Amino acid sequence: MSGKISDNLGTASGLVKSATDAPDSGSSDPTVTTNPSAAGDRFINTTSGELFVCIDATAGENKWTGQLGTDVAPIVWYGGRGVWAGGATPSNTDAIEYIAIGTTGDASDFGDIITAQKMSGNGPSSGSRALFAGGAGYPVFTNVIQYITFASLGDAADFGDTIGSVYNFTGVSNGTRGIWSGGAGSPVAVYVDVIQYVTIATTGNGADFGDLLIPLSGHTSCSSETRGVFAGGNGNAPAGYQNVIQYVTMASAADSTDFGDLLDANGSSPGGCASAAGRGVFGGGYTAPVSVNVIQYIAIGTTGNSTDFGDLTQLRNGTAANSNGTRGVWGAGTNAADSALYDILDYVTIGTTGNASDFGDLTSTRKETSSSAGD
Question: In the CATH hierarchy, which top-level class contains the domain 81-374?
């Protein structure tokens, strides 16, 4: 022996080395919420014998790869390409346009929806496909569901039909199911409480999911991997504009449940989106008798009232938002004070709080458009 501990690395040196940490284990595969201490940690499924290695240790969004080819990763309902479809310019438009959410700059042409019409609300996304449903080409409402593939620029294609012809409703997604709630039926003054869903990867008609707390039109929405949230809206007279936030668990068809309240009663299409970490944000809208620029937020995985986040750059309702999981972008809208239409794009970093910043412009001014995001 040398007498110097650092030089004695063999078994005869007398140095006792700590044993390698054993992998965690369980009777099933790890999940995105099986939170290891670091990337590179291992997990054994004691039933199948497959060994998994964590390749991304983001808490609640972990990614695992298995030696037998099994991959475990979060379901994605957002993405890097944001789109807006349809709207009023003030005449109805069929234009779809897009941005790269992670940058700033003006929007570019993507393609066209099937017919020129007002859309409104969020379009559910699987991360690769977006759905847009219903709409109004006054005085005719539509029941058409249509879809685009984010990676390929082009026109929307027919997907199926909604339950009833409705307009001014909004959607959520868990990456697998697309779910829409409420809306204005025909005649315009009649709002509905129907929640309906489709499987985004296939084509087909909407099926009944449950009911909202009350019939609503002009509300907004956001979602996490498990929970869809609907906020605000306008109820049938005498209910009027609402401050109620409500939610559904998207894997289980059922009526919505009370979540909490917005800062104020808010309707006429505010824009909503969410971060991958589970923060939902709502921006703009209409608090009678004025358009507002307030952004507010919630933690989707809990329940409770919303909290002030900051302000959009303009007072506006009739706007729509999308997210890449980190950044939220609002586009389009109108100001009730003078009926001005906007082409403005604003953005925030959802994980922080503060006022929105200018992103760029849409290709034209518009209101009552539908928005989604994916790759």
Answer: mainly beta
